Every structure is written in structure tokens, then in C-alpha cells.
Amino acid sequence: MEQKLSTRARSLEMSxxxxxxxxxxxxxxxxxxxxxxxxxPPRVVQEALFEAVRTGGTHNKYxxxxxxxxxxxxxxxxxxxxxxxxxxxxxxxxxGGTEALLSAALALYDPGNEVLIPNPGFVLYGPHARMAxxxxxxxxxxxxxxxxxxxxxxxxxxxxxxxxxxxxSPSNPTGGVFTPRSIDGIVSFAQEHDLTILSDxxxxxxxYTPGGHRSFxxxxxxxxxxxxxxxxxxxxxxxxxxxxxxxxxAVEANKIHYHxxxxxxxxxxxxxxxxxxxxxxxxxxxxxxxxxxxDLIVRGLNSVPGMHCVKPEGAFYAFPSYTWGMPSLEAAxxxxxxxxxxxxxxxxxxxxxxxxxFSFANSRExxxxxxxxxxxxxxxxxxxxxPERVAGTA
Length: 394
Ligand SMILES: Cc1ncc(COP(=O)(O)O)c(C=O)c1O
Hints:
Elements: H1 7-11, H2 16-22, E1 30-31, H3 43-55, H4 69-79, E2 91-94, H5 96-108, E3 114-119, H6 125-131, E4 135-140, H7 151-157, E5 162-168, H8 180-193, E6 196-200, E7 223-228, E8 241-244, H9 247-261, H10 266-278, H11 280-302, E9 307-308, E10 317-318, E11 321-322, H12 328-337, E12 340-341, E13 343-344, E14 356-359, H13 364-382, H14 387-391
Parallel strand pairs: 1-12, 3-4, 3-5, 5-6, 6-7
Antiparallel strand pairs: 2-8, 7-8, 9-11, 10-14, 13-14
Helix pairs in contact: 3-10, 4-10, 5-6, 5-9, 11-13
Bound molecules: pyridoxal-5'-phosphate.
């Protein structure tokens, strides 16, 4: 007999990122598909984890659902630079930014609400809206606008059912960072239409523009910020993130979070707390290395025939467009056969088509090798002489 399954579950697809992640690659392939730093967590953070586990006692037990108070205090302190009123009551520690995003979505959206999400944008925003029975409505981030939102378009697509707008600066996949003008514009737009801003700021330490990160926190009273330790402490596998919201939203999000996960990992929180204070040098060194790799990859991508890359201003992704006249999935799959893994742009939304996402969280040596593979491919495509095509097997 056929198993009865929820429409909700059936309507979800595994993300396109995972499809390319799991696809088999020839031995020795270079992986620029990864959305995670290629570093290990800083030494002090590793030591703090071992110590917490060995000390035992409460460190190996369930903790408070909203997170251990010392970590919430430290995170509130981090956000007081944007709003001096921020306190522990505004912070919920979660199982990664992923769970923070879902807890926020389930706390904020009602069935039938519309939620404005970036196109191209990170793969969770649409499915999370649908899991809350809300409707994702894409807004455009176009290469020719430097991946900035078009405020006129936002006015055209907002309706009286719109509940929230999701923003992500620095962005995955575009590497774009919102300008002060875009931020001001989105804040005014949200105020005018009574919307919540759900701001995903997980790349806030990896910013190449002068003056560092520009947060939405403190700009408007209906902002929910999602953040994570995954990228800044290179601990993607530890699953620790947090959200920062008004105390009212935090109480509701904490109920959802509690019913999904009970509490975040206690020893990981102890270690992350140490990282916030004692790993500043490692975090800065990692960001500096990413900047050097960014410069290297952008030069490489812009030398590939038929390819154009806007310089990413944050995160560790380059999102070039190409004019080879083939779907991005086909381009990514063909490159994979040649030993280079990347992610097809269309996985991030319709406007990601004719783009590829390359993560530069990989060594400079591998980035150079990757650019050689890509350049050969670009030359063949631009001259219309790709061997697979000629043989009709692509
Ligand atoms: C923009 C963005 N938000 C959220 C996440 C989720 O990160 P995590 O759940 O590891 O904290 C990611 C991960 O790639 C991301 O790129």
C-alpha cells in the first residue's frame, strides 16, 4: 500500500547545491563547489571543545533552550555596536544559521503570507517559506546592478499579503554586499509596508569593502538577524548559529526552536564562546587569505573567454556569468567531467541561470588549476569546438 505523505514534504526538493555536491567526480578533481571554509576551527576553539567535553558535568548535558547565558551575553555584546540596547533577551542560540532561519520563518509567517526572497539567493529561503505555508516571491539581484536590489521592482511586487523581506548581505551566491543606499532603501520600504526584515548575515566577518560589515540590526525595530559560527570559526559541521530579534520575536522563535531541537549543543557553545574572544587573529587571518584568493579568482574568471565576473565584496563566492549559450547545469556537469566541481547558478533561482558559482574556499594552487580547466573550456565553447558537443554526447 502506498505510504501517505504530507503535501508539505512532497512539495520540497533537495537543493540543487546538494545535487552537484553528491555527483561523482573523477579522481583528483578540484572542488570549488563547497560553501564552507577549507580551514579547521581555530586551535583555541578545538581545545575549548575538548576541555568542555572532558570536564563533563553540565557541559555534556542539555542546556537552556535559548543557549547558555554566557554565550548569549557575548553575542548581545557583539550586536551592541549596532544597537546599544541589545541584551541577552534578544539572542537565541540555534543549531546553525539553518535552524535560526527556519525558527524565524515559522515564528514570523502565517499561511498565505508572501515573503520576498532574493533571486538569485541562498537555497533555504523559499522552502522555509513554503514549510510555513507562506508563498515565496522572488525579487531580482542582477549582475548589471552589481547585485543590488531594485527598489522600484520591490514596490511593484509587494502586496497587502507580504509579511517579510529576506535579505542576505554579503550574499551567497553573488558575493554582493548591499550599499548604504540599498540598505536605507530596504529599511524605508519595510517601514512603509509594515514588513519584517529577515537579514541573513552569516558572512559578516568576510567583507572586503572599507568600513566592514553593515548590519540591518538597529536600523528598524522589526529586524531579525540570523548569524552563524559556521563560517567565522570554520565549524560548519558543529552546527551552531543564532538569531537576534526583538525580545517579543525571540520568545516566539524560542518556542519553535525548543520544539524542534530542545537546545543547541552545549560543548560546542562553550567552545564558540572562547572563539568569540580568543580567536580574533585567526578570524582576521582567514578573511585576509580569502581576500587574496578573491583577487586571484576574479582575475582568472575574467580571463576566460565568454565569462564575466563582478568582483565579490564579501563572502567567498564568485558568481560569473557566461555567454556560452548552454544551461548552467550542463556547464557545471561538463566541468565536473573535466575535474572541476562548481555549482550551477540556476540552483539559486531563475536569475542565476547563465551563471556559475565558484567558492574560493580552496587553496590558491587549486584555484589556479581550476582556472586552467575553465579557460580551456571557455575557449572551446567560445569557438564552438567542444569535443563532447561535436560527438553529440553532451
Ligand atoms: C547565506 C547563508 N545562510 C545560512 C547558511 C547556513 O549556515 P549554517 O546552517 O551552517 O550556519 C549558509 C550556509 O551556507 C549560507 O550560505
